[in-house]
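Supplementary Methods S3. Input chains for the assembly prediction are listed below.
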Amino acid sequence: MEELWYRLKRNFLHACKSIRFNWRQYASFFIAIFLIQSFFWLLLLTQDAQTAQLKANAEENYDYHVAVSGLSQDQAIRLQNGAFVVFTDDRLYKIVRTEEIPNAYGGKSYTVYCFITAEPLEQKINTFERRHIQPLRESAESPDLVRVDYSPLLTYAADAAAQRAPYIAITAIFTLVAALVLMLLYNIRINHFKFLYGIYMSFGADYKKLLYTAAWELIAVSILTLGPALLFATLVRLIFCLALGGRFAISFWTIPIVFLLNLLVIFAAVALPMRFAAARRPIDLLAAEDNGNLVVSPRRSFRLFGQRFPDRYEFASIWRFRRYYLRLLLSSVIFAAISVSVLYVGTMYVENRDADRVPYVIRTVSKRQIIDESLAESIADIDGVLRVDCTYNLESLPAYEAHLLIPTDRIRTMAAYRYYISSEMQGSNATAATVDGYRATNNAAYTLLNDLTIAALEQQAADSNGRITIEGDLRAAMATPGTVVVSDSIYNSTCFPLRPGDKIQLGLYLNYTRKIDQGLTREKDVLRQQLRWYNFNHVELTVGAVVHGLPAERDIMLALSAEDCISLLGITPGIKSIEVVTDPALDAAGQAALDAEMEQLFAYYNDYAVTEHRVYEEADLEYRMGIEPLLAVVSVMVLFFFPLVCFFSQFLFYTSETASLPFCSRSALWAARSAGHTASKGFCSRRQTSY
Amino acid sequence: MEESRIILEARSVIKQYRQYDTTVTAVNRACIKVRENEFVAIIGTSGSGKSTFLHLCAGMDRPNAGTIYIRGNEITSMKADELSRFRGNYMGMIFQNHNLIPQFTALENILIPTTMCNKPDFSYEEHLKRLIATLGLGDRLHHLPSELSGGQQQRVAIARALINMPQVVFADEPTGNLDRANADEVLDLLLEIKAQIGQTLVMVTHDMKIAERADRIYRMENGELMPVMR
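Predicted structure tokens for the full assembly:
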């Protein structure tokens, strides 16, 4: 241990000395590592703030760990009594409050809110369930009636962990970018100061030794910039907190994690350049060579420091530095692209955050398969509800072994869907006249065209800032048999530019001549075989209205009226689930009122499961975390890297060449690059001037 | 002398460079055998290929053809890392222009081989003291190279080459940048240490006066190595 400590100390002091003596050479590393560390700090401080905010929100808004609902009076009393056991060591929880809720049958159900008092919480919650909830379930008419909900007070740590995924992805990407930038810088350094590594290799340094030597220097820089970077990141975070109202927090583990990430970046950055350096012959590293190949413009490099450089040499340098120009162009494009991408991700993030808020999803439980339409209408009428998105007991076309025939002139050739020419429909009973001029697709999904759907579509179009438009009359389409409403986009691009009045054909399965291969996995192949071997009854449908720009992943919408569903598909349509889309501008009071109304409504509908998503709290949390301004800061930091690389190479060129002017630079500019030996003999001896 | 073993052997070593469209042969089928404790001088005019040959023998460069053995180990077939470690353990190199690292003090420069090559079971402290005393560097150890004279810098470079007690020392015109008095003094020191430790010394020089003090002399002419009869 003592030996290890001695070695660490010796290596660190050696590295510090090297840095102190050559601080100008390391200035760019200081800036780069400062930026890298600042970013890591910012990212981890944001995560810490998020956890702290989740905890604070939970403590502020919840006074219980577990809510046990759907209890009878006896069960509620039993649970209340369970809190008072004889031995204090066995006491697990205390009762916060008990609520009485009237149900649809004139009776009452009870919700008991419990606060777990025993520690550790994670372990005791299991004991609580085993000792107190399990017996309640066993005594209930149906175990499903007793519902247990955990409050964020119990789940905030798990929620915070779940929300770390995007941070981990961003950290991984940035680690890679940071390693590449540092590698670029270190490569420039090696190129300019290969003499140093040549000496090391002459006296026995192998790759491992060179790697550690280089890494130690950067570790020293890293240690020296750790504090300033933390200070900078803290300031930025505090500004975010003041502006957006979030919390500031730093956890114990953040410090070693940042340091470890730094180590990872450093080792990744020096490993490859050192591998190449170690594979070279020491004499090549020792021999003086012109390193102007890493400089965009010698003239600019010299003018940077108030020196003069003859213009005619600059012209000669254009061809000589052609590789560098190319690299420069590529680097600038890459850095700019990364920077713009980060900004774009920030915008996407905000759009996503401010997108439809669906705090409730309603599904059926028990034997009931269909949700009453009246329930959906009641929900739609509640204040603060923008619309209800209903999912019907209808699926996409492949589930019915059906397809759509779309006029050829209503198909975009570059669209992301699959279609086939009608001549492939060998097995179909469709006549040539029926299918001629059409192409087939099964990238469509049925939905019910009713008042709810129309209201939802109109609301969606109204809220979309013009991205979603409706062409045609939705209500007229609903009232006319054989008339449908369709959407035209898949994956945000228009695939089928249909217009109202267009005729499409719906291929409805009759029988088959040969079965489709069960081993097929590609939808394209399944459709091809379906068209060849299956017989269909083709029904002509009129497009009554088209919804342009409706978000869809795989299928366009094919909305049929209830009558058409029955007559064509033989299905009586019914609602399977409801997503309640609410007003994003709702404040806490509005949200509480909405919660109360929903609770009241569902007291009379016992057969439904209502899933609550804390979308408002999440959106508020995300806003407070300031992800968008954070990404903007990162974008600017990325932009800083590029001039840093340029400046570094300019600077090193200046420091290494200035004393040997004019002979060395002139030779370097006019003479072709040749073998190391010739260069070392023929040109100038740079090491005399550099060291 | 006859009974001592061969420490360096080069067989038909060729080194060529491409220069534009022509090929320059810097070393042409050079052969040499150097025995333990021997002092061999290689003389020749500038550009004759003597430094290149020395670099090849020290494993600092790779020949196009031929083989080189040090202590019976073929260094021409060694991988880069293996060769570096081998060089650190058994070879010392003295350069004409010192090649000291400017940010390190004289002492730190001397100790570079000990940190770069962890020679097993080797304690350098006593040897360091002896070297410092012999080379007269006692009062300059904590000075930077820029604070030392040319002669002092070369003494530091000699100490650095010898600190790991290498079996063979390659010196590339170690007195080339020094005046006569300094050159003689440095050579005296080098030979004194050689006698103390018992090393093999292969030196490239264009100074005949220095070469005459060697056990054997070789002349390099247009890349060809020939023994000089005395």
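The CA atoms of residues 207 and 279 of chain A lie 8 Å apart. The first helix of chain A runs from residue 2 to 21.
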